[in-house]
Amino acid sequence: MYSLFTGWSNGVCAGTGDCLLTLAANSSVTANFAYDAAHQVQIDGTATYYSALQTAYAAASEGEIIKLWATAYNESLDCSRPVTVTLQGGYDSSYAGIIGDPVLNGVLMITDGTVVFEGFSIQ
Q1: Secondary structure (DSSP) of 50-94
Q2: Is the whole model's pTM more than 0.85, yes or no?
Q3: N or C: which end of the chain has fewer CB within 10 A?
Q4: What does the alpha-carbon distance between residue 100 and residue 119 come to, in Å, rounded to a whole number?
Q5: 63-102 residues labelled b (16+ CB within 10 A) or e (exposed)
Q6: How far is CA 64 from its chain centroid?
């Protein structure tokens, strides 16, 4: 769900284009995927994506909603700006619906401003 197709290997297909097989005998091909970390955080109403919570928080303006995929974020988050932001989590890869809770695996520090958490776990 949070992956990007990176290409074909291990068979008659190569590259990232279409793979058309004519099966006259046993054949195999491997489709390769990589986690799409570049799009896992988005400031609502923008077409700008972030790979880290901290980067999105630093870019957010007063009152903005930071949307998060339903995945684990292995980082610490230092909220030290005089703004109010909402971290709203659990989205699918297209940000169309809530499918679970994001998890912050790190330290959360709030020393200024207000952070509202919606659908969010901290471990």
Answers
A1: ESSHHHHHHHPPTT-EEEEESSEE-S-EEEEEEEEEEEEEEE-TT
A2: no
A3: C
A4: 8
A5: ebebbbbbbebeeebbbebeeebbbbbbbebeeeeeeeeb
A6: 18
